[in-house]
Amino acid sequence: MADAPGSGRVFERLCVVGLGLIGASVALAARRGGGVGTIVAYDASAAVRARVVELGLADIVADTAAEAVAGCDHVVLCVPVGAIGAVAAEIAPHLAPGAVLSDVGSVKGAVVEAVTPHLPAGVAFVPAHPVAGTEFSGPDAGFAALFENRWCILTPCEASPEAAVAGVRALWEGFGARVDTMSPAHHDLVLAITSHVPHLIAYNIVGTAAHLETVTNSEVIKFSAGGFRDFTRIAASDPTMWRDVFLNNREAVLEMLGRFLEDLSALQRMVRFGDGDGLFELFTKTRAIRTSIVAVGQETAAADFGRRDAGQPVEASSSGGTGPRS
Amino acid sequence: MADAPGSGRVFERLCVVGLGLIGASVALAARRGGGVGTIVAYDASAAVRARVVELGLADIVADTAAEAVAGCDHVVLCVPVGAIGAVAAEIAPHLAPGAVLSDVGSVKGAVVEAVTPHLPAGVAFVPAHPVAGTEFSGPDAGFAALFENRWCILTPCEASPEAAVAGVRALWEGFGARVDTMSPAHHDLVLAITSHVPHLIAYNIVGTAAHLETVTNSEVIKFSAGGFRDFTRIAASDPTMWRDVFLNNREAVLEMLGRFLEDLSALQRMVRFGDGDGLFELFTKTRAIRTSIVAVGQETAAADFGRRDAGQPVEASSSGGTGPRS
């Protein structure tokens, strides 16, 4: 951590392990924010490492995880949740005394369980989850502004020293994020309903649509502007990351999915028995939630369904010459 | 219909009944496209009629539906599907001989059933459904470019004269839309999967999230950027319109919902039993569908999850002064 008071640095040497969308954005945000001295990067894929060099995402791109973390006062693991235990085991012997270890995983209980056994004495672990992302993956998808005005949730353990938690908080605040803290278990429940189950049902409906006999895929694609295309955006997220989320947050996902299915049964009955008042009441309530999300700045109020800038420009025809003559 | 060849007009006098998002956009697109002579508007709500006058959406705003349709060679009903039968009954005696009647309803079978019995001899009915919209409602939400590059589906009856179908097609092409034709029954099946069921499950998950005891509404709202907020956008659509869709496309919606639920049961089992390969395979396939939708121009490839221009500008801090000192 920063030695000289007033140096403006939160960490002297930051190591980012895993340069996907989030890892690349962390590197870019760290460079822009200035709260970090040297940025070291490592990715298990040689192709990704080469691309990280080309994109200039880091000051140093190391060839091994051991080399990468050596001498770093902060290490952020930006790998899929399922890989995090193995990566922790690999780097553990090479972590500098006093270093702060963190991650960006979308699941926290399983990450704490996977990392804690490998933690050397004198290294603090402060699990973190920036609630931000796009439907794109890989180092090219990263951008420095990804975390601006988004929430980053820290789930510090009882053993996490206060200074380590404060350091991670300062780093994310420097990225423009807002920081909250909660327990790993509560995090996993909150994210199950705000992120994991929405992804599960988006993946599901896109799969259903792709396997119908009565409606062709080409029709599904053509007429997707009626709502379906918004689900495909979510269902285009990284498959490895999301496989690992569901494998590692099973209990909370199944609990929230159970609630979703109970409610859907009630809604299905309303449709079957033509309960217009029930439908109208639900559809009015859900509109209010949307208004709150826009009000707290987690969403834009722009009419996105219209995708005004998405259409190909079409010549406004004033000829209409193919019209009928009466 | 246009008398003078070369006048460039598809219809001489267009009447828009119902000035919500779609009706207002039809009026604006008609004015911009130039394929129409005079634009007459009527809405059952006096407040909406007054607003239509203020916004200058039409050349004439009539006080009654009867007055509005009199002398018009084209009448487009832009009212909720559940109201369309009553509106057809009200205007039928006043429709000009030779007039072409159309609509913009999201359901076609029920609309054909509701309108056909009221159709006077000499008036053609060409049902239409522009697959376009936003999450906003009312005359202020309309804009001329809404239909650009979007599909408009016509479901002409056997009795629809060819010239009438061609006129409606030319009108929508003049709005920048692409036009397809199919049977009402097939339309209702296609839209059930591409639009109606997606809306149903979006409304449902937003309702589920709002009624949890373990996660507060304020947490749902704060952390909505993880996927949930995209569902709230869809679940903010007009309650009356959507109530009527589900009441009037019950069979197809229940059929597609049944398929969705079968698939979701299989997915739920994959999560429960930790079938990582099964999850990865599904998540990879769904990504490909997304790519196709972008490829055919029904969606932008921009990384919308990031909502780059949505965040409040955050000062990039280079102080990080609150960080720990080692």
TrEMBL record, chains A, B:
Enzyme Commission identifier(s): 1.3.1.12
Q: Pfam families in the record, alphabetically?
A: PDH_C (PF20463), PDH_N (PF02153)
Quick check: keyword Transport in the entry? no
Tell me the InterPro entries matching this sequence.
Answer: 6-PGluconate_DH-like_C_sf (IPR008927), NAD(P)-bd_dom_sf (IPR036291), PDH_C (IPR046825), PDH_N (IPR046826), Preph/Arog_dehydrog (IPR050812), Prephen_DH (IPR003099)
Please list the reactions this protein catalyses.
prephenate + NAD(+) = 3-(4-hydroxyphenyl)pyruvate + CO2 + NADH
Please give the pathway this protein is involved in. Answer: Amino-acid biosynthesis; L-tyrosine biosynthesis; (4-hydroxyphenyl)pyruvate from prephenate (NAD(+) route): step 1/1
Q: Which UniProt keywords apply?
A: Amino-acid biosynthesis, Aromatic amino acid biosynthesis, NAD, Oxidoreductase, Tyrosine biosynthesis
* SUPFAM superfamilies noted in UniProt: 6-phosphogluconate dehydrogenase C-terminal domain-like, NAD(P)-binding Rossmann-fold domains
Q: Which PANTHER family match?
A: PREPHENATE DEHYDROGENASE, PREPHENATE DEHYDROGENASE [NADP(+)]
Q: List the NCBIfam families hit by this protein, alphabetically.
A: PRK07502.1
What is the protein name for this chain? prephenate dehydrogenase
